[in-house]
Amino acid sequence: MKYKIERIVVSAVVHSTEDMEKVGEAIAELIPFEFEIEVSKAKGHFGNEMYFLEVEIKDKKKIKEFLKYILNRLKESEELKSLKRTLEDRIDPNNILHLRFDKQKAYLGEIRLTSNDPIAVKVKIVTYPSKKEYAVKVVRNIIEEYTGENRVR
Length: 153
Known about the structure:
Layout: E1 2-14, H1 20-28, E2 38-43, E3 49-57, H2 60-76, H3 79-85, H4 87-90, E4 96-102, H5 103-107, E5 118-128, H6 132-147
Antiparallel strand pairs: 1-3, 1-5, 2-3, 4-5
Helix pairs in contact: 2-6
């Protein structure tokens, strides 16, 4: 089966009660190399000012470095088990792996999965043929390869 990781997008919302610089530092905790953050301004539901921070990774070497770094950080914290258990639910019909990391914990140097107010990571997986079951298999293989975890299935 052929596959490639086309891109990774790391993003976070900065609410009016948050410090944009601190949210940027939280994002930096997830990325092991130099990067640029794109900032977009928006209005919230009640007219409050908010910002979107986004980093797009397309370089093959950086994609591999990012995935290896994240997976090994998750392994250290035992969060990898949770990821493996919920893997099929995290891949959508477009073969995008959705990971959500706790913004507050990341700022404090910890990487933890969450569903509330996250730093969102979207990993676009291209498989040939393009089927979710193949994308799941690819991610399982990547986890095994990058972390040495053999009991992924």
